[in-house]
Design goal:
Layout lengths: L43 E3 L13 H10 L9 E3 L7 H4 L23 H21 L1 H27 L5 H37 L8 H26 L4 H26 L3 E3 L3 E5 H21 L6 H29 L14 H23 L3
Antiparallel strand pairs: 1-2, 3-4
């Protein structure tokens, strides 16, 4: 029955609102029947003042049901919500008073978002391997770069296929990527460009062995992957070719790591203003300032004490450039991962994600450091 029936005017031959016509039951008493069973008893309606006098002509069961449905409420009228048990809703489910003091929320601690112990352990282990290979034999370090490139290409192509259905051919990319690093170390910039062109050609030809559907997007992704991972990594091998190559590579690695660490530390402690919320919500302007400050100080020290013929002011400029390129590289991969709908490129490195999650800042920074080194102290 609709709520409007409770306020409808009386009709001829029907009981009036305040009295009985024709000796019917007292008004305000709910008629018994299927419409007033327990499942339908939860309603909110104005209730009239009803006498406790038993209704005339009704049996005892109907009178008990009437008393349960129509009860006295308030001095005049009040809306009450009745549950199936017959008690008002506020009685069954009491709510706290508006003025009652609410308990203060427990303070939340800032979280780093990763397992810091695992991240530090893995980072230290990688650092030992890199430094050992760097200063023991240059060719060994070139092999380390090639391995990192191949693993990074595998992660990138796997995520592209899983999330977007893009099948960038891994075999020509892996072979061409490793050859690109070696060619850059042996033949310089010209060798790197030739290897890049041959790798792109190999991607185009390799993809022809499969059906033409999706050919354009697959080869486009393949050429992009060849440029993004192995070609940019080749500039690390180019840094190594100088007489003080190991120290140049060490400076490049130190400045990139210091930049990332400064951004993380300052941003986690003082970060309030988002840097690029649509791309990477965790990065802040305060973190960028920390990256610039830390990298410039480290750059001045490295150029003054590690690089032959280097000066501290060159290190300041180098640190500023590294902070900018590392941040852009981090944002660039964040765009890729956001487009793919993933947090990390892989799970190979506990606390870090995948290899590509560590190369994101290094890859775009390598050509910047190589170019500035050539300008400041030459390529020999």
């Amino acid at each position: 029955m609709s709520d409007s029936s409770w306020g409808a005017p009386p009709h001829a031959g029907q009981a009036g609102y305040w009295g009985s016509t024709g000796g019917g039951p007292l008004q305000g008493a709910a008629p018994a029947g299927p419409a007033y069973d327990a499942p339908e008893a939860q309603q909110t309606r104005p209730m009239p003042i009803v006498s406790d006098v038993p209704a005339h002509g009704g049996d005892q069961d109907h009178q008990d049901a009437d008393r349960g449905a129509a009860r006295l409420s308030g001095p005049l009228f009040r809306d009450e919500t009745f549950q199936a048990g017959g008690l008002p809703a506020e009685t069954q489910n009491p709510e706290p008073m508006p003025d009652a003091p609410q308990p203060a929320p427990a303070p939340q601690k800032k979280s780093a978002g990763r397992d810091l112990s695992a991240a530090i352990g893995v980072g230290v282990g990688l650092g030992v391997v890199i430094v050992a290979s760097l200063f023991v034999e240059k060719a060994v370090f070139v092999g380390v770069i090639a391995v990192a490139v191949v693993v990074g290409l595998w992660e990138l192509t796997s995520r592209l296929q899983e999330r977007k259905g893009i099948k960038a051919p891994l075999v020509p990319l892996a072979v061409g990527g490793a050859a690109m690093v070696v060619a850059g170390y042996v033949r310089g910039v010209e060798g790197a460009w030739v290897a890049m062109a041959l790798t792109a050609l190999a991607v185009l030809v390799w993809r022809m062995t499969e059906p033409p559907e999706g050919y354009l997007k697959d080869v486009t992704a393949g050429v992009f992957a060849a440029f993004y991972v192995p070609f940019l990594a080749t500039f690390v091998a180019l840094l190594l070719t100088a007489d003080d190559g190991p120290w140049r590579v060490l400076t490049f690695l130190l400045l990139t790591v210091v930049s990332d660490t400064g951004a993380y530390a300052v941003g986690w402690r003082f970060g309030k203003h988002k840097l690029a919320p649509r791309i990477s919500p965790g990065k802040t302007r305060e973190g960028l300032l920390g990256a610039v400050t830390f990298a410039m100080v480290a750059g001045a020290l490295c150029m003054q004490f590690l690089i032959e013929d280097g000066t501290w002011w060159q290190g300041l400029l180098l640190g500023l450039a590294v902070a900018a390129s590392a941040t852009l590289g981090d944002l660039g991969e964040s765009m890729i991962k956001r487009d793919l709908g993933i947090k990390d490129m892989g799970t190979l490195l506990p606390g870090h994600g995948g290899i590509m999650d560590r190369l994101d800042s290094l890859l775009p920074t390598a050509p910047v450091v190589w170019l500035l080194m050539v300008v400041f102290v030459g390529s020999a």
